[in-house]
């Protein structure tokens, strides 16, 4: 073999080894922050076991939500989202997750996961979780509570984002309208905030519509989103009706106190009372970076 061919082969081997090393470096942060090997069935916990398996890049207690005792709930701690699932309504009570600027940068990169490669799936380990086809011909879309755009940084995160435990029936015009614009704003905010804690979910009522083969999947009339920035120590909330909305997403800003009054939930309970009371009472949309969606 000629000297030139030998040098070419050595160069090819070096490039291959560097490629593998780069892939390892890309995932090293997340392998230290999350338990990638934990199978879904082991992440399903009851109220006595909450908090044992989920691993966060920061204070995991910020993702805890105190729910009313009367509300049916099963807490499921996935790789990057915490789902509080209601088997009676067959939708989540709430979905919580953290979004760091590192995650957002990876989600927006060319190497990010493509949502077209993923399909909605039922989580067979969660009681009451519907199948994807139960929404067919219902007139409603499968609305992600933790949006796919925030989970594109990791394959497992995307797979679990598409589990039906993370889904609620949403009107298409709302889901792809001002609700999507709000999701895009939160995604952008994480870049400067460094880390956001996000809670999203339905607001239940006594006269809800139901869909599905057996007519037992609740269609919420409203949805909430709560965002907390630990670095800036500020928070904001939004409430939107499940219909085509006439105004900009910014018009639906409100306080966390208002969302807690509507739901009976307690967010950010792990914060000191003085801090929690102050940030939850403010409706400070002007303090957050402006975002103008493409319409």
Q: Can I get a quick summary?
A:
With 295 residues, the protein is of the alpha+beta class. The chain has helices spanning 3-33, 40-43, 101-107, 155-161, 172-175, 178-193, 256-263, 273-279, and strands spanning 74-77, 82-86, 91-100, 141-144, 167-170, 195-203, 209-211, 217-219, 222-229, 234-241, 253-254.
Structural features:
295 residues, alpha+beta, seven-stranded antiparallel β-sheet, 11 strands, 28% helix
Write the layout of secondary structure elements.
Elements: H1 3-33, H2 40-43, E1 74-77, E2 82-86, E3 91-100, H3 101-107, E4 141-144, H4 155-161, E5 167-170, H5 172-175, H6 178-193, E6 195-203, E7 209-211, E8 217-219, E9 222-229, E10 234-241, E11 253-254, H7 256-263, H8 273-279
Antiparallel strand pairs: 1-2, 2-3, 3-6, 4-5, 6-9, 7-8, 9-10, 10-11
In words, what does this structure look like?
- It is a single chain.
- By secondary structure, the chain is an alpha+beta fold.
- It folds into 2 domains: 1-33; 39-287, 3-Layer(aba) Sandwich (Extracellular Endonuclease, Chain A), CATH 3.40.570.
- The protein has helices at 3-33, 40-43, 101-107, 155-161, 172-175, 178-193, 256-263, 273-279; strands at 74-77, 82-86, 91-100, 141-144, 167-170, 195-203, 209-211, 217-219, 222-229, 234-241, 253-254.
- Helix 3 (101-107) packs across helix 6 (178-193).
Highest-level CATH class of the largest domain: Alpha Beta
- Count all strands and give the number: 11
Task: Give the CATH topology of the largest domain.
Answer: Extracellular Endonuclease, Chain A
Look at the helices and sheets and give the structural class: alpha+beta
Shape: globular
How large, in whole angstroms, is the Cα Rg? Answer: 21 Å
Largest sheet: 7 strands, antiparallel
Low-confidence residue ranges: 13-56
Report, as a whole number of angstroms, the end-to-end distance: 62 Å
CATH architecture of the largest domain: 3-Layer(aba) Sandwich
Strand content: 15-25%
CATH H level, superfamily name of the largest domain:
Extracellular Endonuclease, subunit A
Tally of domains? 2
Overall average pLDDT: 84
**How many separate helices?**
8
Order of helices and strands: HHEEEHEHEHHEEEEEEHH
Question: Major sheet: order of its strands?
Answer: 1-2-3-6-9-10-11
Task: Tell me the helix content.
Answer: 25-40%
């Amino acid at each position: 073999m000629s000297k030139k061919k030998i040098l070419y082969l050595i160069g090819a081997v070096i490039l291959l080894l560097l490629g593998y090393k780069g892939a390892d470096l890309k995932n090293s942060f997340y392998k230290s922050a999350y338990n990638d090997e934990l199978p879904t069935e082991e992440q399903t916990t009851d109220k006595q076991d909450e908090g044992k398996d989920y691993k966060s890049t920061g204070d995991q207690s910020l993702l805890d939500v105190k729910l009313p005792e009367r509300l049916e709930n099963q807490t499921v701690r996935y790789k990057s989202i915490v789902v509080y699932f209601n088997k009676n309504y067959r939708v989540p009570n709430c979905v919580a997750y953290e979004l760091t600027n590192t995650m957002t940068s990876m989600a927006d990169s060319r190497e990010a996961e493509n949502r077209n490669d993923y399909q909605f799936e039922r989580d067979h380990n969660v009681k009451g979780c519907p199948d994807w086809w139960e929404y067919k011909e219902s007139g409603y879309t499968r609305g992600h509570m933790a949006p796919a755009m925030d989970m594109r940084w990791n394959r497992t995160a995307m797979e679990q984002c598409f589990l039906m435990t993370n889904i609620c029936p949403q009107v298409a015009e709302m889901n792809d309208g001002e609700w999507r614009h709000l999701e895009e704003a939160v995604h952008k905010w994480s870049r400067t905030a460094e880390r956001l804690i996000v809670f999203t979910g339905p607001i239940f009522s006594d006269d809800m519509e139901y869909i599905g083969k057996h007519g037992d999947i609740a269609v919420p009339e409203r949805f909430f989103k709560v965002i907390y920035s630990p670095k800036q120590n500020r928070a904001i909330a939004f409430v939107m009706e499940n219909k085509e909305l006439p105004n900009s997403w910014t018009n639906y800003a409100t306080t966390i106190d208002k969302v807690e009054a509507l739901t009976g939930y307690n967010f950010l309970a792990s914060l000191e009372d003085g801090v929690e009371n102050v940030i939850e009472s403010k409706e400070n949309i002007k303090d957050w970076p402006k975002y103008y969606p493409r319409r």
